[in-house]
Amino acid sequence: MIERGLDYIFSPESVAVVGASTKGIGLQQATATTFLKSLLSCGFKGKIYPVNPRGGEISGLKVYTNVKDIPKPVDYVICGISLLQVPQLIKDCIVKGVKTIHILTSGFSESGSEEGKQLEREISSLARQNGIRVIGPNCMGVYCPKIGLSFNPNFPKENGPVALISQSGGNSAYVVREGARRGIEFSKAVSYGNACDINESDLLEYLAADPDTEIIAAYLEGVKDGPRFKQAFKEAANLKPVIVLKGGVTESGARAVASHTGALAGAEEIWNALFHQFGAIRVYSLEELIDTAVTFTRLSPPLGKKLGILGIGGGATVLATDDCTNAGLEIPRFPIELQNKLKGYLTKGSIGVSLNNPVDLSDQGWNISYYCAKAILDYEGIDLLILQIPVGIFSYLSPERYSATLSFINGIIKAHRESNKPIGAVIHLPLSVETYQLVLDCERSCCEAGLPIYHSLSNAAKAITRFIDYHERRKGMLG
């Protein structure tokens, strides 16, 4: 059954932040105050009510001494108070008629102590018996840019097609921030921690039916209910691409999972069987999770695996061939006619140039990228093109080199607009402060043009292969 009962969690009309304070008296209270700033910074569309026994005022908002004292209805409560105060807060929320409590407080079952486990069971039972849904404890909660609900004041305000669920708060923040830098826009992101109530199955069921979500990305450490999760996973993967990073696949990793969120990690062979059976996409790092989500959101499906590579730097192009071949892509040799066409764009007597596939333009390529890219894209022997430009390795960046690099990128973008074949851009991370702004400018230009961005050819090849394989499987399943 699809869980539509979570709609109100992603569309509260009012939020109370319990523990927000003008004075930093503890980590959790400071975090609660950050949540308040996040709601204000991201333009939350509903009412915001700070709550603290000291009262007063924060950011121009009246601080109420208790949730029960708020004169109007409260839909959603963010709990940033100490461990032993949480049960009483839930009782106050029951009186107030609150629908959802996000408990960012830690020290519950993930601590491994019997007291923490018992307290988690107590608050879960108390909330459920009184119709309140709980997110957490020990988590960052919900990011929903459509309504301005956020746990980070610097998260983007734009919403898009990707949803993220993550047991880890830190991992969820990293994926949102790095994903946004590379053009991913999110419908929702949920860090759900110990999952004493709302868990991965609830969220998968909801997102499978969510009209704002087209792609589901997930970081999972364990599951609460195996049979239910299997069904939810199946339904979600049948409807939408589901990209999953499974944490705790080794024995030591499983121990870390237990101490992080108190979850049971599960056997590796069971997870492998689930991915194979349901056609979900498995990744093995946060970088791969982001790379794959970038590919699914920004690359149009190519007709095949024949790849053209256009770049600058001989050693990089040699490694590119190995990386792409190992990932399952084909690097066809360019015919002499195409090589001669590319040669015609170069200065006579050019040194260090290679016109076979991969194409290395060396220092000759800065102003002829459009012509070379267009010639390669027009060649019927390739299905897609990858741009390889190692701007991050420049040790010295003159104004002329800065301008030439952007000219190279702009030429590729122009060719992209005139072709129906997909293009990806590999822009290496900066190795010096001097090149950092250039990398950002290149990334921004590619993002605005709709190109997927990767930080290495190896990462691009893996993500693109997964993308192609997924669409081929779907075609097979649909006949």
SSE blueprint:
Elements lengths: L13 E5 L8 H15 L5 E5 L5 E2 L2 E2 L13 E4 L6 H11 L3 E4 L10 H16 L3 E3 L5 E3 L15 E8 L2 H13 L4 E6 L8 H10 L5 E6 L5 H14 L2 E5 L4 H11 L6 H11 L2 E3 L2 H13 L8 E5 L2 H14 L8 H8 L15 E2 L8 H10 L5 E6 L9 H19 L5 E5 L5 H16 L4 E2 L2 H21 L2
Parallel strand pairs: 1-2, 1-5, 5-6, 6-7, 9-10, 9-11, 11-12, 12-13, 14-15, 14-16, 16-17, 17-18
Antiparallel strand pairs: 3-4, 8-10
Structure notes:
- By secondary structure, this protein is an alpha/beta fold.
- 42% of the residues lie in helices and 16% in strands.
- The protein has 15 helices and 18 strands.
- The protein has helices at 27-41, 86-96, 114-129, 169-181, 200-209, 226-239, 251-261, 268-278, 286-298, 314-327, 336-343, 369-378, 399-417, 433-448, 457-477, and strands at 14-18, 47-51, 57-58, 61-62, 76-79, 100-103, 133-135, 141-143, 159-166, 186-191, 215-220, 242-246, 281-283, 307-311, 359-360, 384-389, 423-427, 453-454.
- The strands form 4 sheets. A 6-stranded mixed beta sheet has the order 8-10-9-11-12-13, sandwiched between helices. A 5-stranded parallel beta sheet has the order 2-1-5-6-7, sandwiched between helices. Strands 15-14-16-17-18 form a 5-stranded parallel beta sheet, with helices on both faces.
- The chain is elongated.
- The protein starts with 13 loop residues before the first strand and ends with a helix.
